[in-house]
Amino acid sequence: MLKYMKFKGKIAVWFWALEILANAMILYDLIFKRDNIIALVIGGVILNLVFIPIIVRNYVLLNDESITLYFGFGKESIKVNEILEVYQTHNPIASSAASLDRIVIKGRRSEIMCSVKDKTKLIEEIKKINQQIVFRGNF
After folding, report:
1. How far apart (Å, rounded) are the C-alpha atoms in residues 123 and 71?
2. Which tens digits make up the pLDDT trace of 56-66?
3. For labelling, which of 46, 51, 115, 122 has a CA lying 20 to 30 Å from the CA of 69?
4. Rg (the chain; Cα; Å)
5. What is the CA angle 51-103-70, rounded to 5?
6. Residue 33 sits in which domain range?
7. Between 139 and 101, whose confidence is greater?
8. Cα–Cα distances in Å, from 37 out to 15, 68, 96?
9. What's the CATH number where 32 sits?
10. How many domains does one find in the chain?
11. CB count in 10 Å sphere of residue 109
12. Mean pLDDT of the chain
């Protein structure tokens, strides 16, 4: 019986750059322009309420029964016995991932997109649990 295995989410350089650049722009305007201070503070708070949870809560939990993705305020889960295929993608659309190096885990009724630092280990562990899954791509 496999206890929960935790796989840390991958955060791309572009995601960090976007977070830092957006905060730097707000900070610059607060220090040097001083126009609309209230709007800048509110914008900074909202920006960080979105980005910080994504950075802090970005991981996948795997056990014998399910794979659960935690991403920011969101949580998605899929049962391992319902997984049909797993493949890699760099699709930037509609994903719970802070990197373009993504894995799609497709089930009968749903699919999860995630990006983990050690995707090879994640794939190995999924294969151990369910050998019926089709794996496409080089893992």
Report:
1. 19
2. 999 999 999 99
3. 46
4. 18
5. 40
6. 1-139
7. 101
8. 26, 40, 32
9. 2.30.29.30
10. 1
11. 7
12. 92
DSSP string, the chain: ----EEEEBPB-HHHHHHHHHHHHHHHHIIIII-SSHHHHHHHHHHHHHHHHHHHHSEEEEE-SSEEEEEETTEEEEEEGGGEEEEEEE---SS-S-BSS-EEEEEESS-EEEE-BTTHHHHHHHHHHH-TT-EEES--
11-31 pLDDT, tens digit per residue, is 999 999 999 999 999 999 999
What is the C-alpha separation between 131 and 43, in angstroms, rounded? 48
Q: How many angstroms separate the CA atoms of 66 and 119, rounded?
A: 16
pLDDT at 93: 77
Query: Taking a C-beta distance cutoff of 8 angstroms, is the pair 129, 80 a contact?
Result: yes
The candidate with the shortest Cα–Cα distance to 108, out of 68, 79, 128, 137, is 79
CA distances, 67 to each of 31, 79, 82, 118, 135 (Å):
45, 6, 11, 15, 16
